[in-house]
Amino acid sequence: MAGSSSALGFPKSQCCSSLREQLARTTLRNVRLKGHSYVELREDNKKPIFFCVLCLSPCHNDSVLHDHLRGHLHKKNYEAAKSTLLKENPWPFNDGMLFFHTPCNEKSPLLTSNPNLGSNLLLSESNENNSLAIVASNGSPSSLGDEDNMDVDENGYHLIVPQVLHKDIVTDLEVRSIGLGKIGVRYYQKDGVRKGISRIWCEWIGNCHPNQDDTTPHHDFAILSFSFNYDMGRKNVLDEMLFLPSSEVNKENRGKKRKSFSDPEDVSESLSNQCESSGEEYLASGDSSSRKLVKYDDNSLKLGIIPSRSVRKELRVHRRVASERVCDICQHKILLGKDVATLLNMNTGRLVCSSRNLNGAFHVFHISCLIHWVLFCDYEVYTKQLVAPKVKKRGRRKKGVNITEAEKEERKQIYCAFCPECQGTGIDIDGDELEKPTVSLSEMFRYKMKASDGHREYRKCPEMLQNCSTGFHFPTQSEETMQENVSPLKMLRFYRAV
């Protein structure tokens, strides 16, 4: 039988994978027709798997998927999602962590794979070439905080964000408005005095403009979203790597036993040795006949012009390691082509990370995680305003010392939204002076854990709203009977790279 199968030319693994993908695509179509729009196709070890975004659960075949959809955990999460994420006006984002809707004006996910970028990737079309639209700015950009200076067209506001790093070039970025989110809070109070906040949320309003009677102020920060690419916001991680020509390598390795790179430490050591010499043009051999090195980069790998198999392998390893970026808020991987976001300071018109560096680099996060972080910062700010203790007056001799210590303690607290990774706020900086972080790493970890617990409670007991929402619920620990009052807080603007 083995000989007959070889003679018949049974399909190899690649062909089988293609058939498996077609079957998975058919199953996905049938599942979504039944209303399960939160089920996706992803890749695990070069094999297509199903993934339930509501439960963050992978399902390796259709039978496991159907069992999961009938399970108790999924039904519980589905009931919670009906009040938050499955309303008629859904969030137009797909970040793989909370949001799962793709806007109508964007391409729907395709079932393709990219084995060079590792496992657990979304099987969708790569948006690497059109993830950002960089445009040149004629003169100084308009102030983003003044809406009278904004350029308006039929698609909404188009803004220019200055000095953004893209593919090792610091240039200007054109962004467009995609909608508004309304931040609201539920206070609990006693005898007319507010004691704290039990819920805070962001409700997706969309492109519709608020009523003229609505006096809700705009937030000082905005969410700027992108389609994720592994080198986004940072300098090219696949800088030119120098290798000896294949003929020289063969001469050196002649008579020597080939070294196996089965150990990950060997691979990393080899890559580090290659990268250490990336700034050199020639190999320092000590004699006059220096051997010239050959430069290869990521474009060389894409174009397939690298003749050496070992060089291609090392570049793929380097690329796979570079692609495994995680969200600093939730510590989960960011998937290629998914929606990520960074913060934009609307008062200065700059990205918040710009006050922490001078090269245009910025950090990105899952867009749902960043919305949660903005809500958490607002919660901390307004909670401290409600329950801040009064400062006792002291003698004149100690007055100056006490004020200085109070100011130092206040700076360590959250007083506005900021980047959760570098703590930048996007303020105006003078010269080469950079903004300094104020919150310790231990406090940041405590804040992130508190935000995670608050969102988990919100899914159990959400605020009943007309539109889709996401937020936090912090149940009061007091046993006293208190009244509750709902109040709008701010309007959060959302932008996207054109």
Automatic annotation (TrEMBL):
InterPro entries: Znf_C2H2_type (IPR013087). This is C2H2-type domain-containing protein. Residues 253-275 are annotated as: Disordered. Residues 52-74 form the C2H2-type domain. PROSITE patterns: ZINC_FINGER_C2H2_1 (PS00028).
